[in-house]
Design goal:
CATH class of the largest domain: Alpha Beta
Distance between the termini: 102 Å
Strand content: 15-25%
Radius of gyration: 24 Å
Number of helices: 6
């Protein structure tokens, strides 16, 4: 029989994982084997810059926490797993994708975006989406183009009418 204190500590970790999953919109599990301590610190710093958190948990504890939340990703929980949690759905994916370009040791396993299980391929495609600020800039540019084009057309029409009247 397992020591009750150890079981209690494990339950606290499971509860912590469940709380982080429930409070996050973007979660990415990835393999970090092969990274040096300096590279792990760099990754933690990059994730912290986008309000994401990096944690390493035992796969069995991750599985127990996700089972309690009715999330099934047990096929992806082989080998060591690190987890990035974020309120932003895309930010940790983009950070990890950029980090992977320089550090081939990192591989994405699976993600949860707004509570939906997301495969490695889907994570890679989400990484190509521009940032929220970039999307808002594109939207604003598109919205400004319409009145600008209208103003140009009205100006040209007014000049044409002036020429006809002279």
């Amino acid at each position: 029989m397992a020591n009750p204190k150890i079981l209690e500590q494990k339950q606290l970790v499971i509860d912590e994982i469940k709380e982080k999953v429930e409070n996050s919109n973007g979660i990415v599990l990835f393999d970090y084997r092969g990274l040096t301590d300096a590279e792990i610190k760099e990754l933690k710093h990059l994730l912290r810059d986008v309000d994401s958190e990096y944690k390493v948990y035992k796969n069995t504890l991750i599985q127990r926490a996700l089972n309690d939340l009715n999330i099934d990703i047990h096929d992806h929980l082989n080998g060591p797993s690190a987890v990035a949690f974020s309120k932003d759905q895309i930010a940790p994916i983009k950070v990890l994708a950029n980090f992977m370009k320089k550090h081939k040791a990192v591989t994405l396993k699976v993600g949860l975006v707004d509570g939906e299980v997301t495969t490695e391929e889907e994570l890679n495609s989400l990484a190509t989406i521009p940032s929220r600020e970039g999307l808002l800039t594109m939207l604003a540019g598109g919205m400004l183009a319409i009145p600008k084009d209208l103003a140009i057309c009205l100006d040209l029409y007014a000049k044409k009418l002036e020429e006809e009247n002279n």
